[in-house]
Amino acid sequence: MKKFGVGVLTGVASTIAAAATAAVTFHKIAVKPITDEEAKFEDTERKAARKAAQSHGNRF
């Protein structure tokens, strides 16, 4: 019976570790590139707005 308990605990620990690894991998592969792309887009938009305001501003 002792080996059964150790086996169950090992299985539970392995399952939790696998789920955590899957979550971290998903975040690195799917979520982070989208977040980086959005940040780059916002930065580009900010720069473009600044240039547009400066070039079309008042000339007097």
Count of individual helical segments: 1
End-to-end C-alpha gap: 90 Å
Helix and strand element order: H
- State the low-pLDDT regions, or none: none
Radius of gyration: 26 Å
What is the arithmetic mean of pLDDT?
89
Structural class: mainly alpha
Taken together, the total number of domains comes to 1
| Proportion of residues in β-strands | under 5%
Described by the principal axes of the CA atoms, the overall outline is rod-shaped
Fold and architecture overview:
The protein is mainly alpha-helical and 60 residues long. It has one domain (1-54). Helix content is 90%, strand content 0%. It contains one helix and no strands. The chain has one helix at residues 2-55. It is rod-shaped, with a radius of gyration of 26 Å. The chain starts with a helix and ends in a 5-residue tail after the last helix. The mean pLDDT is 89.
Briefly say what this structure is:
With 60 residues, the chain is mostly helical. The chain contains one helix and no strands.
Keywords:
signal, 60 residues, mainly alpha, Gram-positive signal peptide protein, YSIRK family, rod-shaped, DUF3042
SSE order and pairing:
Elements lengths: L1 H54 L5
